[in-house]
């Protein structure tokens, strides 16, 4: 039988955290919360699930997740976000895998995104393949924004049936706010790597992002929500390069 440490990074997630922790009951052999000094009731809700609550100043997403690994005591690490939850099918698959013994180094599954109360089934948002379970010592997190869990070279990886439910945006205001925040972080990371920002990318990349997601990957089947999502992806692509060009220009003056 295999054991799993569930690891979550939080900041003011009182509205979400109970849903997530309830979904991992019976699967998590321990729960580790890495919290960036929340000012709401996040800690109190976590205590109801006997989670180990560790306070740590936030640096970036990868650093925060990697720092959590030293606290984990189980065979496997499952990294989740506070606004996520295991679907019933995914939970059942994980229970079966634990009972039979997990023999791969890492596991991935699809994430199913909810936008303003609607589950998005097409386009750039589904299926969204994500790797979130890894054997301890077989990988770490990389990237400051849109960070990814990277297995070591030669690691064995397997897909698990079932979806990870993601309650991404409850309203349009949160979408706009997060787009601005994420593009700023993306620009800092791109500038650090000295990535170019040619003018044509302001026009070609956003256009292609919309066409690919909305038409080629059938995003239009998700109604007006699908339209807004893929317009936002195109906007994010455009504003990212606009901010990067501005960043380089300001450095030259």
Describe the structure concisely for a colleague:
This protein has 253 residues and is α/β, with parallel strands linked by helices. The chain has helices at 17-23, 42-47, 61-68, 88-100, 172-192, 204-216, 223-251, and strands at residues 4-10, 30-35, 52-55, 76-81, 84-86, 106-115, 118-119, 128-135, 139-142, 148-151, 157-169. Strand 1 (4-10), helix 1 (17-23) and strand 2 form a beta-alpha-beta unit.
Keywords, separated by commas or semicolons:
single chain, 253 residues, alpha/beta, Spore Coat Polysaccharide Biosynthesis Protein SpsA, Chain A, 2 domains, nine-stranded mixed sheet, two-stranded antiparallel ribbon, 38% helix, globular
Report what the structure shows.
By secondary structure, the chain is an alpha/beta fold. It has helices spanning 17-23, 42-47, 61-68, 88-100, 172-192, 204-216, 223-251; strands at 4-10, 30-35, 52-55, 76-81, 84-86, 106-115, 118-119, 128-135, 139-142, 148-151, 157-169. Strands 1, 2, 3, 4, 5, 6, 7, 8 and 11 form a nine-stranded mixed beta sheet that branches. Strands 9-10 form a two-stranded antiparallel ribbon. α5 (172-192) packs parallel to α7 (223-251) and α6 packs antiparallel against α7. It is globular, with a radius of gyration of 19 Å. The model has no long low-confidence stretch (mean pLDDT 96).
* CATH domain class of the largest domain: Alpha Beta
Beta percentage is 25-35%
> Would you identify the CATH architecture of the largest domain?
Alpha-Beta Complex
Give the count of structural domains.
2
Overall structural class, as computed from helix and strand content, comes to alpha/beta
Q: What oligomeric state do the depicted chains represent?
A: single chain
Largest sheet: 9 strands, mixed
Cα radius of gyration in angstroms: 19 Å
Helix content bin: 25-40%
Label the overall shape.
Answer: globular
Poorly predicted segments: none
Average pLDDT reading = 96
Order of helices and strands: EHEHEHEEHEEEEEEHHH
> Would you tell me which CATH topology of the largest domain applies?
Spore Coat Polysaccharide Biosynthesis Protein SpsA, Chain A
Q: Number of DSSP helices? A: 7
């Amino acid at each position: 039988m295999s054991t799993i440490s569930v690891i979550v990074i939080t900041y003011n997630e009182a509205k979400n955290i109970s849903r997530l922790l309830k979904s991992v009951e019976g699967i998590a052999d321990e729960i580790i919360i890495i919290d960036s000094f929340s000012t709401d009731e996040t800690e109190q809700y976590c205590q109801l699930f006997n989670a180990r609550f560790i306070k740590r100043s936030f640096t970036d997403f990868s650093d925060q997740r990697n720092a959590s690994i030293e606290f984990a005591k189980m065979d496997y690490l499952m990294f989740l976000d506070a606004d996520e939850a295991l679907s019933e099918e995914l939970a059942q698959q994980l229970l079966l895998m634990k009972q039979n013994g997990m023999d791969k180094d890492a596991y991935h599954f699809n994430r199913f995104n909810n936008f303003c109360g609607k589950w998005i089934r097409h386009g750039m948002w589904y299926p969204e393949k994500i790797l979130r379970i890894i054997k301890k010592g077989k990988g770490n997190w990389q990237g400051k924004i849109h960070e990814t869990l990277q297995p070591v070279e030669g690691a064995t990886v397997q897909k698990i049936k079932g979806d990870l439910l993601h309650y991404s945006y409850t309203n349009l205001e949160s979408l706009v706010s997060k787009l601005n925040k994420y593009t700023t972080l993306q620009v800092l990371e791109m500038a650090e790597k000295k990535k170019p920002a040619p003018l044509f990318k302001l026009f070609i990349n956003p256009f292609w992002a919309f066409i690919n997601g909305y038409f080629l990957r059938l995003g239009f089947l998700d109604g007006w929500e699908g339209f807004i999502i893929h317009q936002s992806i195109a906007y994010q692509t455009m504003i990212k390069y606009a901010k990067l060009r501005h960043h380089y220009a300001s450095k030259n003056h």
